[in-house]
């Protein structure tokens, strides 16, 4: 046998190193030894590839890297890092098929990473990559190393093997399988949902090792599924002991000395308007008529900053959470209930500390004077939205004259906003009526009525006024560090796609002048408000818009048509508002602003956590939809095609507003395919079309709550 043959692995021998993991390891070696010329043998030594089969895998990978110009051959025996390309950092977005895209700040195109070049990176990780192929449509590269893990804890179902257990992740895009030794199970049993933490990830393994740190219960129970959703988003439903200890020492009674240094507004008519099941009352409104014929309208916000001090355990935890999370059957508050529901909450018939904005207005709502500061208030009445709506529609009730007067002012403000180019979005929320066991027995769609808009307008007024006060350039005043709520202008490509979408309903929109997009959208909404497709069209319009974020640089708020805007009115449930309270109080007192460069990092964190909370809330709604439809398998419903994709069509049912999918291969009568150019599904032979907005009839065929999946049959 020749020496060459001796180096070949035995027939059927399995390498310790997998082909799709070794490329990133090799590139990492060359990055650390950027000036060195390394032989195949040295590379094998540095990555601990000992067996012949693994060494062969390394050799093939080296050849492939040379072909892709990531490394170059110095001579026949040695390799070195190619200097033609530079390393870049970006965030990983995994696909269902194991490939990834890396988003790099300042770079227009994402970089495609084939499965064999992903290495040990996971969804959301910050990674270092090397681009080896640039193309007209996309660039391709390889992940060199993980700079920072997005998460090390994953939720899934435990599957017992002979000598170990395996975590099967709930979400294969953002999760990963994990080996767990019998000693690291911590009492978990086969089939249970668990939270697992990665403890080690050997270089030679595609799969990490971990331990069970929490047992969530058996799949299918509401508790297990809701906990699974929370932990999957990195949201901990339990507060640390240190935080709870701080919260328990918060006094409920107000301090007499503190009251003396605040503006006392307890004798002025004050009330809250909130959902019927609310417990955390962030905001209240006061009303009084002045001797000069004007009115004073107050917006009073819970003074969370009085209780939560910078650097405290509660403050650090609130920043880590960034916001409260509202699932269908529970709330995960940003602050412990001692604060969110008791000490800070502006409950009726209790004296409370507040941070207030007082507006002196003419009877028609023109603001002639503003005042900001710390106050003590007393809520005389707790209204629900339903109670106020009935009064606004003509029913008698407490403070009915006041409510109707301020509703008139709110309508004036809303009309002015829309004339200035604000978007007329009617908020719509899917809610569920649950029985005593937490099972959904009815689907409800909550729409925004005059009572909601009344509160919304005065909260918008307060937020805009505070932002303007802190941000508008003033001679001899230094720029104040600030958290803005910004909303960018629409992306032309996305709006063009939206135009194609609404054409399916027989509508057109003029997008030629960016200054008139909001006006034209509002006209479209007005024309559709009584039509079945209104909700669907509005939802698609919102998806076509940029997402509002928190930033330290102001670009204005497109959707509201405000030059300056921030969040000030919900500090119990949003950390951004707490920060703005602190900034405002500093400006009103010693002007020694304490926030600096770290404010940008705070904005990034709270924007990111806001998206996580929204994802958790959406998953919760999907789960309860499947629970509800589980009782309706076999039933037929009229519906509207709400989405089209390569794998089928989504249909939203008219009666219950739930959505399911008709798989492409289950559409009867022909072999159908997705026409990406015209956004339609079309039959190969009969040329029958299915478009957005088409009315169809479907039968609920199969429902899988664990996968949040509803399969429909087209009739």
Describe the structure.
By secondary structure, the chain is an alpha+beta fold. The protein is built from 18 helices and 34 strands. The chain has six domains: 3-81, Orthogonal Bundle (Arc Repressor Mutant, subunit A); 87-148, Nucleic acid-binding proteins (OB fold (Dihydrolipoamide Acetyltransferase, E2P), Beta Barrel); 153-219, OB fold (Dihydrolipoamide Acetyltransferase, E2P); 242-421, no CATH class; 452-605, no CATH class; 632-714, OB fold (Dihydrolipoamide Acetyltransferase, E2P). The model is unreliable at 1-11 (pLDDT under 50).
What does this entry show, briefly?
The chain has 18 helices and 34 strands. With 715 residues, it is of the alpha+beta class. β31 and β32 form a beta hairpin.
Strand content range? 25-35%
SS-based class: alpha+beta
Strand order of the largest sheet: 14-21-20-17-16-15-22
The number of strands is: 34
* Radius of gyration based on Cα positions: 29 Å
List the helices and strands and how they pair.
Layout: H1 3-6, H2 19-32, E1 38-39, H3 40-46, H4 52-67, E2 71-73, E3 78-81, E4 87-94, E5 100-103, E6 111-113, E7 126-133, E8 139-148, E9 153-160, E10 164-169, E11 178-181, E12 193-200, E13 209-217, H5 222-232, H6 241-248, H7 256-260, E14 263-264, E15 269-274, E16 283-289, E17 295-302, H8 304-307, H9 313-321, E18 325-326, E19 331-332, H10 337-343, E20 351-361, E21 367-378, E22 381-384, H11 385-392, H12 400-419, E23 428-434, E24 440-447, H13 450-471, E25 484-486, H14 492-503, H15 517-528, H16 534-544, E26 549-551, H17 575-588, H18 598-630, E27 636-645, E28 648-653, E29 659-663, E30 672-675, E31 680-683, E32 689-691, E33 695-704, E34 709-714
Parallel strand pairs: 6-8, 11-13, 14-21, 15-22
Antiparallel strand pairs: 1-3, 2-3, 4-5, 4-7, 5-6, 7-8, 9-10, 9-12, 10-11, 12-13, 15-16, 16-17, 17-20, 18-19, 20-21, 23-24, 25-26, 27-28, 27-33, 28-29, 30-31, 31-32, 33-34
